[in-house]
Amino acid sequence: MPKHHRVYLVLRQEILEGRHGSSAPMPGEVALAKEFGVSRVTIRTAMERLTQEGIVERMRGRGTFVRERSESPIGASLSGNIENLMALGLRTNVRVVDVQFLPAPLAVATEMGIAEGTIMQRAVRVRSLDGIPFSHLTTWLPEEIGRSFTREEMGREPLLKLIERTGHKVASARQAITAMLATPDVARLLAVQIGEALLSVRRTVFDETGRPVERIFGLYRPDLYEHETRFSRNPDKRGGVWNA
Prior knowledge:
Elements: H1 3-16, H2 29-36, H3 40-52, E1 56-59, E2 63-66, E3 74-77, H4 82-91, E4 93-103, H5 106-112, E5 119-129, E6 132-142, H6 143-146, H7 151-156, H8 159-165, E7 170-181, H9 184-190, E8 197-207, E9 212-220, E10 225-228, E11 232-234, E12 241-243
Parallel strand pairs: 3-10
Antiparallel strand pairs: 1-2, 4-5, 5-6, 6-9, 7-8, 8-9, 11-12
Helix pairs in contact: 1-3, 2-3
Keywords: DNA-binding, Transcription, Transcription regulation
GO molecular function: DNA binding; DNA-binding transcription factor activity
Protein name: GntR family transcriptional regulator
């Protein structure tokens, strides 16, 4: 990873954490170069990207200031409320990049409880807010569900709503969260650098009968998206176990 990109990532994280306020200028190029052990050219390149993204503003004769941002990162609750996921779909815009009917790979087939090679709908979508892309979504649906709506409808309606239109009432989901690096195709669609860290969410959605109706692989920009989980303590279990 280029040095200027590492500096950019660290500075952006520090800004998001509130370590650099908007009332006072950020440290200058000389101070930052000494702190990071890099050249002033490297610092300048990193600051230029922060400026282009509207995170900082460079004022001649005064220094570089963090721009005040009233908006919060886009969020989705993990409290078990499926409606939260539907609401996210209604608040944002989606671009359908690709839709195909393909044989299910082993990993997807295992999660969906079907035989490897079973034909499924695979769709790739990019979700944005105010024109800024923040998530790359690859979904796998049973063939009969995937053929029940058009590509145009996928660009207008939340996918969970389209699934429920087929008679499958969405009831629950199981997911795992980790981090992954942006591949060249994902980086291009999310407007990030190749190799940049992304939040990775793998989710299987079930209907009321317990049948898996969707397998989704989501990649999210951590500067624009966050997950929130709520816990409650279960006093009936030894040690006071936390329940999500």
